[in-house]
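Problem: given the chain below (233 residues), write out its structure.
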Amino acid sequence: MAQEAVIRVEGVTKQLPLGKVMIDALRGVDMTVYKGEMVGLVGPSGSGKSTLLGILGGLDAPTAGRVEIAGIDTTRLGEGRMTEVRNENIGFIFQFFNLIPTLTALENVMLPIQFARKRQFNPAKRARELLKLLGLGDRMHHRPSELSGGQQQRVAIARALANNPPLILADEPTGNLDTESGKLVLDTLRQIREESGTTVLLVTHDPDIAAGMDRVLTLVDGRIVEHNHVPVA
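Solution.
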């Protein structure tokens, strides 16, 4: 049986302004990520990793090329429909958590469900279940300032999973954490992949983290130059 592609990118380019000239941030990226894979995206600073992640997440549009997320051609969508696709198909995890400081952990996790066009879950019930799963059952009513960095990142993971998306995009999710907290975050992502078949694309500068992925894509000067393929069991 053919593997199901969750990310399919064909010939994606992106030009960005630098002063009075345009530079090529991405130069014809082709990549496919399959259901259930944990894939690392590595490369030097300025190689285009964040630009590519923004395009995959529908936060930016490519200059040329085609992007499919969960079978949906996102390059052809208007902003309204793209917002729906982001909410229902993509979970984002950021290095600096991006939690709303005035809301509790529970309320932060409930937000994506409340905004979903096709609501699959009761917001409070789903948020409680995810926070308990991530070991935060006793921290639900704490605001971000009352949580450690590792706890905040686990709240961010719960929020990313709120609508049970097929894809998680993680931008340096352990970059702002100590070693122990970072390991717990990665173990959590692996557990979620095993239990739900969720696909994870993770940007990292850490070679130890990259070594723990199923496969590593290396981006240099706006091009994928290396595929380190390790078959998924």
